[in-house]
Amino acid sequence: MTSLSDRADFDSPWKEILAAYFPQAMQFFFPETAALIDWERPYEFLNKEFQQITREAEQGKRFADQLVKVWQLQGEELWLLIHVEIQAQKEDNFSKRMFTYNFRIFDRFDKPAISLAILCDPNYEWRPSNYSYDYPNTRLNFEFGMVKLLDYENSWYELENNSNPFATVVMAHLKTQQTRSSPTERKVWKFNLIRRLYDLGLEQQDIRNLYRFIDWVMILPKPLENQFWEEFKQFEQERTMRYITTGERIGYERGVIEGEQAIILKMLKRKVGELSSDIQQRIHSLSVNQLESLSEALLDFDTIADLLNWLETN
Questions:
Q1: Which of 10, 183, 190, 255 has the fewest Cβ atoms within 10 Å of its own Cβ atom?
Q2: Number of domains present in the structure of the chain
Q3: pLDDT reading at 102 higher than 50
Q4: Has residue 195 been placed in a domain?
């Protein structure tokens, strides 16, 4: 049977939601930095530049990292390195890695970067925020911004009354953690959080974006998932015609993704041989657009190295 945590550890939903609502993410988690930015000017996700600062030895572990170019109100260019730590346990070298990535950006591109971390782990005590060393003639103290999602547990009322999309993201994450051993309770919260999207009067695309995130992280065992879909379709029909069949459309999209994943995995096995569970998991975390790109690119693959290189650059 599918574990409740099987899909909740993927970085794909976090990457997608950050891309869809980047200004809102900054305003929600890091308002002081957000206040420096001219949001009238376009921001740019620097995926290729980020790949250049990572090393092959570090790429076995997946992160929802984003490197973003923005413009300050004074007109100067500014780079933001956003790291979402999704792993279930603390990482001893986390602060060092935050420093290393920041330094590599400065060393390779001659750009100072603001480093920011969003910690999703369940450890209340783990709160990395700096990397330092101190010798008689040399010292370093590198500090970076950090928010801990667990801290929002005591602000549930404020989250419920906050229309920022990331209030919903945080609520879904917290309830996913709290219901790891209670799938029935998770089903109730999943329904409540999705119903809240309608109560907020959001536009249809916003409902679809946030629904997708909730659906990805709040995975249910198949029987409860079926119950949830039936209850949700009834809710839509009774509530309003405005968003009718939204759930069915999203369910259809998910079915298309799962079908395309199965086809691509079969084709890859024929092209490059058996795939490890880690590689299969990474393919399962790809978005629709990424799957379409992979289906075209794999025609030129000859070895597993070709596939790994594509995954690292996309």
A1: 255
A2: 2
A3: yes
A4: no
Last residue of a domain, one of 152, 172, 207: 152
Residues 145 and 266 in one domain: no
| Domain end (from 100, 131, 152) | 152
Q: Residue 290 has which token pair?
A: 């990424």
- Judge whether 29 and 147 are in contact, CB under 8 Å: yes
The torsion of the CA quartet 60, 114, 156, 189, rounded to 10 degrees, works out to: -30
Give a yes or no: residue 143 inside a domain.
Answer: yes
Claim to verify: residue 260 and residue 139 sit in the same structural domain: no
Residue 273 is part of which domain span? 255-314
Domain assignment present for 140:
yes
pTM above 0.90, yes or no: no
Q: Report residue 222's pLDDT band, with 50, 70 and 90 as the boundaries.
A: confident
Q: Are 208 and 165 in contact (CB under 8 A)?
A: no
HEC secondary structure over the chain: CCCCCCCCCCCHHHHHHHHHCHHHHHHHHCHHHHCCECCCCCCEECHHHHHHHCCHHHCCCCCEEEEEEEEECCCCEEEEEEEEECCCCCCCCHHHHHHHHHHHHHHHHCCCEEEEEEECCCCCCCCCCEEEEECCCCEEEEECEEEEHHHHHHHHHHHHCCCCHHHHHHHHHHHHHHCCCCHHHHHHHHHHHHHHHHHCCCCHHHHHHHHHHHHHHCCCCHHHHHHHHHHHHHHHHHHCCCCCCHHHHHHHHHHHHHHHHHHHHHHHHHHHCCCCHHHHHHHHCCCHHHHHHHHHHHHHCCCHHHHHHHHHHC
